[in-house]
Design a protein that fits this description.
This protein is mainly α and about 130 residues long. The protein has one domain. Helices cover about 75% and strands about 0% of the residues. It has helices spanning about 5-30, 45-65, 70-95, 100-130. Helix 2 (about 45-65) crosses helix 4 (about 100-130). It is globular and about 50 Å long. The chain starts with 5 loop residues before the first helix and ends with a helix.
Length: about 130
């Protein structure tokens, strides 16, 4: 298997790396920063968690379509599942302005899978239409 040089690695993974850092920032920032935003939708935080990982699922799926390897099909999605769980564990035990929530973790996991699935479904439909 051919290894990637630094530029190839950055070109292939930069969107996923940046989005992973955005998720970390949003999940580990003090909760008070987000209370300034007055949104009265019940369980809005679950939608935010779902959306963050929905985008991650799309990015993982795009990566797999660019370079279909076992790493992109299995190991990176598993790593993101672990990331979703660890965010909640870290919030629960180490960040005093946050609290870990298993329902947030579930929203993360659902977002990841549905983002991956929907992107693949729409890509296949698009391919069928254009061919």
């Amino acid at each position: 298997m051919r290894t990637l040089n630094r530029n190839q690695f950055i070109k292939l993974y930069y969107k996923l790396i940046v989005w992973t850092l955005v998720i970390a920032y949003l999940c580990f920032s003090p909760a008070d920063e987000f209370k300034k935003v007055h949104i009265t939708i019940p369980h809005f935080d679950k939608l935010v968690h779902f959306g963050m990982f929905f985008i991650a699922g799309i990015l993982l799926s795009m990566l797999y379509r660019q370079k279909p390897t076992l790493i992109h099909k299995l190991w990176l999605p598993l790593l993101f599942l672990w990331y979703a769980v660890m965010i909640e564990v870290i919030q629960h035990f180490y960040i005093y302005t946050r609290s870990g929530d298993s329902m947030d973790g579930l929203a993360d996991i659902l977002g990841l899978f549905i983002g991956w699935w929907l992107f693949n479904l729409l890509s296949k439909k698009r391919k069928e239409i254009t061919h």
